[in-house]
Amino acid sequence: MTELIFFINQVVISGAVLGCIYALGAVGITLVFGILRFAHFAHSELMTSGAFFAFLLAGAFAAWGITAPIPMGFVVLPIAMVISAIFALGIDKGFYAPLRKRGAKPVTLLIASIGVTLMVQGLIRLFFGAGSYSFFETETKDVFRVDLSAFGSTRPLVITEPQLLMIVVTALSVIALHLFLTRSRLGKAMRAMADNADLAQVSGINTALVVRVTWIIAGALGCMAGTMLALDVTLKPDLAFNIIIPIFAAAIVGGLGQAYGAIAGGLLIGFAESLAVFNWTMVLRPLNAILPEWLQLPATLAFVPTEYKLTVAFVILVVTLLVRPTGIFKGASS
Amino acid sequence: MIQRSLTLFAGLFALILVIGWVMGLPFTSSRLVEAAAYALIALGLNLQWGYGGLFNFGIMGFLMVGGFAVTFISYPVNPQFWGADGPWLLGRALLAFFAGALLVLAARQSHRAGITGKWKTVLTVIAWFVAYCIYRSQIDPAAAYIESDAGGKWVGGLGAHPVLGWLFGGVLAAAIAYFVGKISLGLRTDYLAIATIGISEIIRALIKNMDWLTRGTLTVSPIPWPVPLPDAYAGGGQPALLLARGGFLLLAIAVLAIAILLISRAYAGPWGRMMRAIRDNHIASASMGKNVTARQLEIFVFGSVLMGIGGAMLVSFVQIFDPSSYQPINHTFLIWVMVIVGGAGNNWGAVFGAVLIWLIWVISEPLAKAVFDVVSYWSSTAGWGAIPDIEARSAQMRVFVLGLVITIALRFAPKGLIPEVVRREG
User: Chain A partners of B339 at a C-beta cutoff of 8 Å?
Assistant: First the structure.
């Protein structure tokens, strides 16, 4: 039982947390790809800047003496999401819309998005320096330890308050997104445009509005993912820049352009990463008693060493591109 | 067109003179050597993107491979490693690698034994897994032994001439590019971009963590120069420094000139026309009987060779191989900005863009510092207080400047400052 709890702590919880962040990021990328047909690299900066908006707001709220039972980062999240959505719209208006108007190829937009990445990254570093910040400098990070000695486990089940809230918030927003895409007119219009942009336009769908809504959703979800990542670890200027490729991997594994695929891909990559570096000896140690002398388990028996954790996502990405480029949910083909 | 290029190059020359006058000759001379190496790398990307229309976002990986190659070839021999059991253990690991490779190849041929469909897939996956386990079981103890004191801490170098190391950098980059291209060249542009970024990150993780081979984050220095070092000149001081760097610069420019000559000749010939045809309409050129995939693989490998050599030159010049200093911004996106701003498809454009962007990149930090100093002086006299941490902030400005340059270039000069010249015969 102790081993099972250890497994849950190490793999299930950390995989779910990582998977939620990847999934929320990948939904934004996949929606932008579906509607505008280009790989939006600057999504990482939407995430990081969203986290910094939330950080500033949390600081302001704390300075005004507002207190809440949950971490301040979650209280200010809705406001930060609105600001991020406006920010995303502004980036589109300033950098991508002129290129689209000129009829530039998707490749040009991709390069432009890298330019935006560099600019936003430079601005964030200009204002906040290269150091790291924490949401929990003034408040404490609550850690829940569920005592499971009744089930014969010597270890408690450990989960922090932000992690628990993160999983709940992600689940809620995924349901909201699902309802939006399947029930509302605008959501259906988005899916129609992702399927066939020309056909959608001739059927009278307001494509300009759809593009705006896409950026609003991408910015808001990006802010949510970035803030939650910063709440789980620390806030730094290259917070999301370092994980943009796993997020792209999640979007591609799920099938680019498929919102549900992105969620599945995000969770898949999150669990795969934490499973790959898991030390199996901790779980299989009881086997040592029955195994012969020459077949004792080594001290660490992980599938890949911990320092290669991030490469797991890249390997999954490359294998997916080779074997099934359309991804799990049959997205845009290669 | 010629007049425009000449004006631009004259302007660039004037900019170099101004930088030399303001920042001093030692600073400018080393920046120029680096600019020559970057020009070579930009030519490599120009081959891939400008001629072939291939989207390589994994430049960093090829630069690291080149850097590792020159370190391995030119660093002095480590007798402690060769005297201990390390080579023998590595040989066993190599055997295990080949055994694993054979196993995978055999599984892939299993349809000949009557195993087809789903069973073949299952067998292939199992073969990959077993091969991985066999290799890990041999390489892990070998790596641990070599990294220990008894094994000599790391493999060391071969002590050969650095120019051989540059060539080996090209060869190694070509070999890796062949596999990368085989895997990913069939993909559409944005998939190719993401796949190459992923592969370059894998290369970075490997080089950073294979301490037995590359010393990883412990870094290797000093790596010898292909030309005499400043100490070799009598007198010493600044003249010796400038003479030594001048020698390195001449060598770098010679390599660059050979590369430009070869590429321009290829571009003007039938091979270049075919490449442009494939870039502009690969379906039409396939219908004319051109083997599109093979040609694209060819040009991907050629471009990567130049990147490997350029990466090796950079490491040779700074004399230190530090895997953790490689960043996608500095080593992939920077090169892209060079080629886009300079003019994709035009070699002189790529060279011009490389030198210009490299100079902008290196002077934007002191320039930002000067601007901040002035503003800070202003704001403190106006009673608002000085700007805090000017040093750290101005170091970050160059990333912003790079982003600004690329967005402006895409908006107002999408074809670059010296665009491609399409000659129409007949």
Answer: none
